Amino acid sequence: MAGRDDGNSAYGHKAFKRSKSHFADRITADGRDGRPVEAGRYRLVVSRACPWASRAVISRRLLGLEDTLSMAIADPIQDDRSWRFTLDPDGRDPVLGIRFLAEAYDRREQDHPGGVSVPAIVDVTDGELVTNDYQRITLDLATEWSALHREGAPDLYPEPLRGEIDAVMAEVYEDVNNGVYRAGFASGQDEYEEACAAVFRRLELLASRLARTRYLVGGTITEADIRLFTTLVRFDAVYHGHFKCNRWKLTENDVLWAYARDLFQTPGFGDTVDFDHIRRHYYQVHTGINPTRIVPLGPDLSGWLSPHHRERLGGRPFGVGTPPGPVRPGEEVPPRGRP
């Protein structure tokens, strides 16, 4: 998720187009791009508000990379320099020593295109941004970082299923992950209606699929589930109202609501979600479509912890593996951010 103040005020006034990740170097086991996987060398910078960054937060926790890949959490409210570290003492990230993520971007390349986005991985040794490739980061965490995974970590991108996972993820990205943004930031009625219709058409197809199977692909959690979850968990809180995706609420679709609750209650998912960050970011930063910056009081979040009964469909969330352990100290979601 990218943004600077002028860009945020422009949302809703021009056609929305997601920027391609400008920095796409990969951190790999063999270091072929010059950045080998190495414990303690890199820092993952995220916002708990951002669905793209939340994928990386969930993957990191499921795979047990907390002691290997440190994490910085940006303030959900941006200023004119975008993501900032005002949640930390003295407004500086304690590891990188910078006030704004933009500083790591500028160390890599001055006057870079595409804004400043999260998730981002920074090399602690030189303070330079390595990658902001939100589509690739989590896939590499699941595959290239496997030597550093915890014992019992799930296989989030199993090789025999990658073709099907990729196909499902492509559809989810186009119509759902990115579709809600195209609807919310549409600058005309026809543009909005086309995007909104595609969102719900795809959600209904996904609901039909998930009525028969507990997870999107295979009998365990995969990258495809993570990518769908990060949009579903934000749906009623921000996309239904703020982005005008209001044909129905998530809570009104029995299958998707149960599926989302199943994942939310799985260790590694709901314990990373901060509803306070989510609501404040969308409603206070996107001034182009919410100029008053008023944050709604609702919706009621208590239902996220209600029984879902999805276990009746079979499947095991972690396959032959085990759930992640307790949340690392300092990374807990504050009480006001929980349901």
Describe the structure.
The chain is mainly α and 339 residues long. The protein is 35% helix and 5% strand. It has 10 helices and 4 strands; from the N terminus they run αβαβαββααααααα. It has helices at residues 5-10, 51-63, 101-108, 137-143, 162-177, 179-184, 189-210, 223-239, 254-264, 275-285, and strands at residues 42-46, 70-73, 120-123, 128-131. Strands 2-1-3-4 form a 4-stranded mixed beta sheet, sandwiched between helices. Helix 2 crosses helix 8 (223-239). The longest helix is centred in the middle third of the chain and has 22 residues, at 189-210. The protein starts with a helix and ends in a 54-residue tail after the last helix.
What is the secondary structure topology, with strand pairs?
Blueprint: H1 5-10, E1 42-46, H2 51-63, E2 70-73, H3 101-108, E3 120-123, E4 128-131, H4 137-143, H5 162-177, H6 179-184, H7 189-210, H8 223-239, H9 254-264, H10 275-285
Parallel strand pairs: 1-2
Antiparallel strand pairs: 1-3, 3-4
Helix pairs in contact: 2-4, 2-8, 5-7, 5-8, 8-9
Brief summary of the model shown:
The chain is mainly alpha-helical and 339 residues long.
Q: Strand pairing plus helix content: what structural class?
A: mainly alpha
Helix content estimate: 25-40%
Distance between the termini: 24 Å
Q: Describe the strand arrangement of the main beta sheet, using strand numbers.
A: 2-1-3-4
List low-pLDDT spans.
none
Rg from alpha-carbon coordinates:
19 Å
Q: How would you characterize the largest beta sheet?
A: 4 strands, mixed
N-to-C SSE series?
Answer: HEHEHEEHHHHHHH
Our count of helices gives: 10
